[in-house]
Amino acid sequence: MPAPASNPQATSTDLPAGRIDIHSHLLPGLDDGCADLDESLASVRRLMEAGFVGSICTPHICPDVYPMNTWAHIPALTMQLQQHLGRAGLDYRLWPGGELRLFDGVINYLKHNQVPTLAATQWVMTDFWTDYWPKWVDKAFDWLIKQGYRPILAHPERLGCHEQLDQRLDQLVGMGVCFQANSRCMTGEEGYHADQIVRKLLAAGRYQFMALDIHQPDSLEARLDGLRLVETEFDKDTLDRLTIDGPRQLIFGLS
Questions:
Q1: What is the pLDDT of residues 3-19, one digit of tens each?
Q2: Integer Cα distance of 182 and 244 in angstroms
């Protein structure tokens, strides 16, 4: 993994052992994730049962679809949900973040809005949805890196440009981009190509992180099933590296 862009204000000393989900849609009512507080609380309770101790809240930042989701609001909304967890007696850590949709013009958008970073670090989670590889994707990553950020491309196994994927991912690795797998792709529920590609990239050691990408509570079991499949088909060390070691390096800058 590249040298971590750590948060000097963060501390891991009071965080219990366990997995951390770096990609979640737990903040209620912001996007296609948890619809309300009850769904957020139900999701956290199940996450705790499954051995998770924290999540980075990454609502979609996509101005065409969710124009109100800007980085100016997300940290305060994350703190509000953290307070609700405390009142409910749930010892579970939340950090603010965002899932930044890349699009033609995203650099100009970021120049006029704050860059949504993960857990007050320099890491930035991104995604995009096209059946080809646009020029603006590489330009966006190049701009972020030159500004000192560390981009993560979420779930590359779900991209539609299958024929170009290996070459394009190699190019991104050379630039310094990291990859995050989506656990539900292991179950086949994200389609045949995602099912095959996620295993191929896992076997090649391409991922630095695996995340649940939780949306609603009723989709959580399939995502947890995906983690179990990683442990069964690969090994526990691989699962721990992607869901414990990698996330803690990201948040706390641990080596």
A1: 444 444 455 668 999 99
A2: 15
